[in-house]
Backbone:
């Protein structure tokens, strides 16, 4: 998985010479049942910029949907001070299944008070958005 946080663009291989290419944030866009084909030139432009060898991709399908992603692209992990005993582990933007082992370790460490993380997990607290 390759993601460009600045452009809100990503791609990943699917095998058999197929690649999933997408883009994130369309703030306040209406929900649709299918892909927004008006968005295709923007996706192709970002692909040309970040992965030129993929720029002339052949479109074989598409989807649209809500990406559960935070404004700063980082997940929300950690206790919610106003709700005793509640711990978040969300906002991974669709990559949660790939990052779930690390997220699980961070949550377990926060609950048990262990300290095995190499990352300052305070960066992931929901309070950063207050």
Residues:
């Amino acid at each position: 998985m390759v993601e460009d946080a600045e452009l809100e663009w990503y791609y990943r291989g699917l095998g058999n010479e197929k690649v999933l290419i997408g883009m994130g944030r369309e703030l306040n866009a209406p929900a649709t049942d299918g892909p927004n084909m008006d968005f295709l030139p923007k996706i192709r432009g970002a692909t040309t910029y970040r992965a030129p060898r993929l720029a002339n991709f052949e479109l074989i399908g598409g989807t649209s949907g809500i990406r559960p992603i935070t404004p700063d692209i980082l997940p929300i992990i950690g206790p919610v001070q106003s709700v005793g005993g509640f711990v978040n582990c969300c906002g991974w933007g669709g990559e949660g299944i790939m990052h779930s082992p690390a997220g699980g370790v961070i949550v377990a460490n926060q609950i048990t008070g262990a300290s095995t993380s190499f990352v300052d997990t305070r960066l992931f607290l929901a309070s950063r958005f207050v």
Observations:
- Residues 76-129 form one domain.
